[in-house]
């Protein structure tokens, strides 16, 4: 088997495994903040994401529901819906939201739990998060949990039975990138469940860095929906996630302080030594390849036009 | 009968069922979840469920979200 084929096989055999289900894409996307449903659909298709987050909100009463329904534009048989508790500031509200989502989605029990602490930072309220996680897990939910980049809390959430832990890279919607790569790395190293960076990614290189740290995936919304061209950014993010994952799997070179030449260093090299005849032969060979000719005669005819 | 639907005071005829309410609101056939006084009313129970005065009803749906 060739190296290329091995690589290809390796890539397809590298699914993201969440709660026993395999996903080919390691990019998870939110469905908020887009201009309209069509832009939402196009961006999510370009992202290649299989798991999409949705919010649960009150139905508008007394208004004609003319705008297309999210569930029609992004059918739940094609995408894995991940209802999230975005906007909940207490464990009780988060648990209620998850139960409504389960009813709404016919018993679907994979949820994203987030309980926020305040509106300025949107940092998670960890005590409420722990409390909600406990209730939800006891109630049969499979919980993917948003948390801060604290390795101790990440481990605690895993021990409680969360199926994935999702530390923030930076505040939600800030686009600041990975502010604390060493904590993310420690969380990844300690973990037995998937670790996904959730929140704070601003551009494609941020996503690649998260993957190079060994994260299992990245969840984002604003970085795509808020870009000048969301569909193009969705495509960029897809590639960054794939590139970052391959870079992680390939194993980077160690960082060194001084140079190390990439061409072989030989004392008998072309520019150091060798006869005039050798040089002429090398130049002739190069010209032959350039013009795809096989003899001196045809070479001369090419040169003379 | 006075009750609260999605935070707003509303008047409904006595004996109306949850299924009839959804019909009346023009929401029939949509994917919804209903909570009455913080308890979910399963879809299968909607036709037989009747409200009491003062009930707090929440009708929710899935929308684009998950803004990070």
Please name the defining characteristics of this protein.
heterodimer; A: 305 residues; alpha/beta; five-stranded parallel β-sheet; three-stranded parallel β-sheet; 12 helices; 14% strand; disordered N terminus; B: 68 residues; mainly beta; 5 strands
What can you tell me about this protein's structure?
The complex is a heterodimer of chains A (305) and B (68). Chain A has twelve helices and ten strands. Chain A has helices at residues 3-12, 37-47, 70-73, 91-104, 126-138, 151-160, 181-190, 204-212, 222-225, 230-250, 276-291, 296-303, and strands at residues 16-18, 21-23, 27-30, 51-58, 80-84, 110-113, 142-147, 164-167, 196-198, 217-220. The radius of gyration of chain A is 26 Å and the shape is elongated. Chain B has 68 residues and is mainly beta. A five-stranded mixed sheet of chain B has the order 2-1-5-3-4, with no helix packed on it. Chain B is globular and about 35 Å long. The N and C termini of chain B lie far apart (42 Å). In chain B, 24% of the residues are buried. Classes of the chains: A alpha/beta (305), B mainly beta (68). The interface between A and B is large, with 46 and 28 residues. Strand 4 (51-58) of chain A pairs antiparallel with strand 5 (56-64) of chain B.
- Please bin the fraction of helical residues of chain A: 40-55%
In this structure, how is the largest beta sheet of chain B organized?
Answer: 5 strands, mixed
- From the spread of the alpha carbons, the general shape of chain B counts as globular
The most extensive interface, with participating residues per chain, is: A-B, 46 and 28 residues
Cross-sheet strand order for the largest sheet of chain B: 2-1-5-3-4
Q: Mind telling me the C-alpha Rg of chain B?
A: 12 Å
Work out the radius of gyration of chain A: 26 Å
Report, as a whole number of angstroms, the end-to-end distance of chain A: 46 Å
Number of strands of chain B: 5
Largest sheet: spatial strand order of chain A: 5-4-3-10-9
Structural class of chain B: mainly beta
Percent in strands of chain B: 35-45%
Identify low-pLDDT runs of chain B. none
């Amino acid at each position: 088997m060739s190296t290329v084929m091995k690589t290809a096989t390796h890539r397809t055999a590298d699914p993201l495994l969440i709660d026993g289900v395999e996903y080919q894409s390691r990019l998870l996307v939110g469905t908020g903040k887009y201009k309209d449903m069509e832009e939402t659909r196009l961006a999510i298709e370009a992202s290649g994401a299989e798991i999409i987050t949705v919010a649960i909100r009150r139905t508008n009463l007394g208004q004609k529901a003319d705008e297309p329904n999210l569930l029609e534009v992004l059918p739940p048989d094609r995408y894995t819906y991940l209802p999230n508790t975005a906007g909940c500031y207490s464990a009780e509200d988060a648990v209620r939201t998850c139960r409504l989502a389960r009813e709404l989605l016919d018993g679907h029990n994979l949820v994203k739990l987030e309980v926020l602490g305040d509106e300025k930072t949107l940092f998670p309220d960890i005590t409420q998060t722990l409390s909600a996680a406990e209730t939800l897990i006891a109630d049969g939910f499979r919980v993917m949990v948003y948390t801060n980049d604290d390795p101790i809390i990440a481990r605690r959430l895993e021990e409680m039975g969360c199926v994935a832990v999702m530390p923030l890279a930076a505040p939600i919607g800030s686009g600041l990138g990975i502010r604390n790569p060493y904590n993310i790395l420690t969380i990844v190293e300690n973990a037995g469940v998937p670790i996904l960076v959730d929140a704070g990614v601003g551009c494609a290189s941020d996503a690649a860095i998260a993957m190079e740290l060994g994260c299992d995936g990245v969840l984002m919304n604003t970085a795509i929906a808020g870009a000048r061209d969301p569909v193009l950014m969705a495509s960029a993010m897809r590639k960054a996630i794939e590139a970052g994952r391959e870079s992680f799997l390939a194993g980077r070179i160690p960082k060194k302080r001084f140079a190390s030449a990439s061409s072989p260093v030989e004392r008998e090299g072309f520019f150091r030594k060798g006869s005039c005849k050798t040089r002429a032969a090398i130049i002739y060979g190069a010209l032959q390849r350039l013009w795809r000719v096989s003899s001196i005669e045809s070479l001369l005819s090419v040169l003379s036009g | 009968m006075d009750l609260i639907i999605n935070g707003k005071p509303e008047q409904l005829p006595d004996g109306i069922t949850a299924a009839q309410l959804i019909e009346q609101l023009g929401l029939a056939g949509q994917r919804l979840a209903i909570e009455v006084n913080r308890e979910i009313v399963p879809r299968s129970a909607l036709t037989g469920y009747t409200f009491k005065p003062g009930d707090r009803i929440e009708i929710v749906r899935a929308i684009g979200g998950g803004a990070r």
